[in-house]
Design a protein that fits this description.
Elements lengths: L1 E8 L4 E11 L2 E7 L6 E7 L8 E4 L15 E9 L7 E11 L5 E6 L4 H12 L6 E4 L12 H9 L3 E4 L12 H17 L3 H4 L1 E3 L7 H10 L2 E5 L14 E5 L3 H15 L2 E6 L1 E3 L10 E3 H14 L2 E3 L1 H6 L20 E3 L4 E7 L2 E2 L3 E3 L2 E10 L2 E7 L7 E8 L3 E8 L2 E9 L2 E7 L3 E2 L8 E6 L2 E8 L3 E7 L4 E8 L4 E8 L2 E7 L3 E8 L3 E8 L1
Parallel strand pairs: 8-14, 8-17, 9-10, 11-12, 12-13, 13-14, 15-16
Antiparallel strand pairs: 1-6, 2-5, 2-7, 3-4, 3-6, 18-28, 19-27, 20-26, 21-26, 22-25, 22-27, 23-24, 23-26, 29-36, 30-35, 31-34, 31-36, 32-33, 32-35
């Protein structure tokens, strides 16, 4: 279907939704021409298997495939229905609405199943940021092996978390009768309420992520909100509160960062399902796990993007904080004189894999010059007295001498080196002067690992990157205040653009095993 607006419509501070009835549809796609096909934003909604009733589709954005769109000039919508193989395809659409958007992007973290690591690790990491979250649990599994008990859940409740309903079923809800479904949903809700989790129990995470029209009607009757796995972002608050999409957190580099970026740019909501958190070496044992390193990166990314982190109850009550709408990067003054003082320096040598001794660094940036004789080398930086999170400093092959940069805190560190030959690593914290700042636009090329900067920018930037290697390609952005944002984390060839919420002096660090290019412009 096509809808055209000859004079254009301003959607800049508005969210869009429409009523849909997917009688024979697997996926619904809405394209916003802003104002052209090459400047479009795309909303995607996967239709749950077996669902053929009406619901309201909040058009949160999932893709921005071309140039930066201009939402103040929407010239048309394309509504696309993907039907089942062999057809037929039938979609009914009605009631296109425009509602005022929130003043800030938002995230909900849902710690699925209430695992012990959610309490021992995640809760403390959220507490440091003064964030709260949701814990969808089955009443029958409270206190089971490896899961939180009543004491831990009540402690989180007292901190402001929601303990939400996740009924345990042996047969999918949509394969049971309406009375059976109603009994399952009410029993799980009431059991949590009786345990003291009345607020959280009103929010449902659908078991097995499957619902039909009957299940949908019952969730509206029994619960205030309903969440199920789907394609990405939605409005804040959604107009449809009983089909709120969430995404899987281990897909950090394959969609989660993009969705949080779009939530930041367009003031939408991203709900992230977090499974059990484990060390990197234990992830492969069960794919439904998330490494501690990636979980830390997820929190850092949400924090850097400035999203409000809330609970489902906050979403319903609209008690979450709203930003004042001011851009903190506007009218930023270009610095003069010394930006960073020269600080620590260290040198390490070795052969093969191993850990260095510990060393101290001051807050700022760290430059590494690495020489090695071997096929590939990877260097991680970790805080030995912390909780085990690693941050990649360098991963490259094919070059005898490379350099890399990262932001660091005032703390104690060590290097973890994975190599098959002799290596030497010189670490330094050089002085940075304002005269060194380069202006945009800027183009850079290279092979293997290197960094670009310092660059000067008033606000956000856009990075167009290419890579022709078959190994890892990573582009990270750092600023002088020590914050980090992962722009690209892919394997193999790459040719695309990424937004970076930057401002002031920034550096771009590249880890690659092939030739690469960067084109950096104001966004």
């Amino acid at each position: 279907m096509e809808i055209r607006f000859d004079d254009g419509i301003d959607f800049k501070d508005w969210d869009t939704s429409l009523a849909v009835k997917p009688e024979s549809v697997d996926r619904i796609i809405v394209e916003f021409l802003a104002p052209t096909q090459s400047q479009r934003l795309t909303s995607i909604r996967i239709v749950p298997d077996g669902y053929d009733g009406w619901f309201r589709m909040d058009c949160g954005y999932q893709q921005k495939p071309g140039e930066d769109p201009d939402l103040s000039n929407i010239t048309g919508l394309n509504i696309i229905a993907d039907g089942p193989d062999g057809g037929p395809t039938k979609l009914l659409v009605d009631d296109l609405r425009r509602t005022e958007s929130a003043a800030n992007g938002t995230a909900i973290l849902a710690f699925y199943g209430g695992h012990g690591s959610h309490y021992d690790i995640a809760a403390e990491m959220l507490e440091e940021r003064d964030w709260t979250a949701a814990v969808p649990v089955s009443p029958e599994q409270i206190g089971a092996a490896g899961r939180m008990g009543r004491t831990e859940l009540r402690d989180l409740r007292d901190r402001g978390w929601d303990v939400c309903s996740l009924p345990q079923v042996s047969t999918p809800l949509l394969e049971q009768s309406e009375d059976q479904q109603r009994q399952i949903l009410k029993t799980a809700r009431d059991a949590l309420a009786d345990e003291g989790f009345e607020d959280g129990s009103s929010h449902l995470f659908v078991p097995d992520d499957r619902m039909d029209t009957t299940t949908y009607g019952l969730t509206r009757e029994i619960h205030e909100t309903t969440f199920l796995s789907n394609a990405g972002t939605t409005s804040v608050p959604p107009t449809e509160m009983h089909m709120i999409p969430f995404i899987w957190s281990p897909a950090l580099h394959a969609g989660v960062r993009r969705h949080t970026n779009l939530s930041d740019q367009y003031n939408h909501l991203t709900v992230v399902r977090v499974p059990r958190i484990v060390d990197e070496a234990d992830v492969g044992v069960n794919e439904n796990r998330m490494s501690l390193d990636d979980f830390g990166l997820l929190l850092d990314h949400i924090e850097h993007r400035g999203l409000n982190v809330i609970t489902p109850s906050d979403l319903v009550d609209e008690t979450f904080e709203r930003a004042d709408g001011n851009d903190e990067t506007e009218n930023r003054e270009r610095p003069s004189g010394t930006i960073l003082e020269a600080d620590q320096s260290h040198t390490f040598e070795g052969s093969g894999s191993g850990n260095t001794s510990t060393f101290d660094l001051d807050e700022g940036v760290l430059v590494a010059n690495v020489s090695y004789d071997g096929g590939e080398i990877a260097v991680n930086v970790t805080k030995p007295d912390g909780i085990g999170r690693n941050e990649n400093l360098l991963i490259t092959s094919g070059n005898a001498t490379v350099e890399s940069i990262m932001a660091v805190d005032d703390d104690t560190y060590r290097l973890e080196v994975d190599a098959d030959g002799a290596w030497s690593i010189d670490l330094s914290q050089p002085a940075v002067d304002a005269d060194e700042l380069e202006d945009l636009p800027l183009e850079a090329t290279g092979t293997g690992s290197a960094f670009v900067g310092p660059l000067w920018n008033q606000g956000g930037i856009r990075v167009v990157a290419t890579h022709d290697g078959d190994g890892a390609f990573i582009v990270d952005g750092y600023d002088a205040d020590g914050s980090r944002e992962i722009l690209v984390h892919r394997t193999g060839e790459f040719n695309n653009s990424r937004s970076y919420k930057a401002g002031g002096p920034v550096w771009l660090n590249v880890e690659a095993n092939g030739d690469w290019t960067l084109e950096v412009v104001d966004s």
